[in-house]
Amino acid sequence: MTSNPYFVPGPQRAEKVKSLFDAVASRYDLLNDLLSFGLHRLWKKRLARMANVGPSCRALDLCCGTGDVTFALAMEGAEVVGLDFSGKMLEAARTRTKRRKQQHRATPQGPVAYVQGDALRLPFCDATFDAVTISYGLRNLASVENGLREMLRVAKPGGRILVLDFGKPDSSLLRRCYGFILRQVVPILGKLSRGGTEAYAYIATSLDHYPAQHGVAETMKRLKLENISVINLLLGTMSIHYAKKPVTGPGHGTVQTSAQKAS
């Protein structure tokens, strides 16, 4: 594992990650498109569809970044709050949402609001949202378990909890190839786009410390979530976790894994 100035374990991590995303906000969407060949947009839309929200629903999108998932949830008809602790990212999210509305090609059916806040200390009451999502953010929290606990707390009974993030393929060969790309190729792309070498080398460092598919699913099981499933994307280099908050009593914690390509 290599060190990175943006990765600091413990309570100081939030401020370091905030500074990272403030620094890359203006180039964030471009780099995401380059790194995923645009597939991240399909995965985010898929996540929004899986949230199963409509006009009578409220949804919370944590670590919302520039608002892709927030907007997609609103397009499903839900009243949506996008939360991020980076002011620069929220500025970009508000600008993109306004621009989309002006284009008249994608007018959200539900209202959208953006709030600056900490995903580990959510400024919302218990049992507020029908769906709570987080995309490429759980990996950046000081505690994965505490992040999931907060998502569980603000979800209504029966509410959906969804996580999209980098994954760790089961194949050791694929993990090595994937690791090489993240450590050697991605930082170069970051430098060429003026996003900074260290800012994008952070992805590999953060993934070293992230429990990924199996660990996140086990944490969900430990928290008594129900209907837990894991969808592997792009050979397991990415994944979506889906679970539901129990309506009454503890959940069964059954985990299903589905290796599927993005479509």
Oligomer: single chain
**Major sheet size, sense and barrel closure:** 8 strands, mixed
CATH superfamily: Vaccinia Virus protein VP39
Domain count: the total is 1
Outline of the structure:
This protein is of the alpha/beta class and 263 residues long. The chain has helices at 13-24, 28-36, 39-50, 68-75, 87-103, 144-154, 172-192, 197-208, 212-222; strands spanning 58-62, 79-84, 112-116, 129-135, 155-166, 226-233, 238-244, 255-259.
Describe this structure in words.
There is one protein chain. This protein has 263 residues and is an alpha/beta fold. It has a single domain, classed as Vaccinia Virus protein VP39 (Rossmann fold). It is built from nine helices and eight strands. It has helices spanning 13-24, 28-36, 39-50, 68-75, 87-103, 144-154, 172-192, 197-208, 212-222; strands at 58-62, 79-84, 112-116, 129-135, 155-166, 226-233, 238-244, 255-259. It has an eight-stranded mixed beta sheet, with helices on both faces. Helix 6 links the parallel strand 4 (129-135) and strand 5 (155-166). The longest helix is centred in the last third of the chain and has 21 residues, at 172-192. The protein is globular, with a radius of gyration of 17 Å. The relative contact order is 0.15. The mean pLDDT is 87.
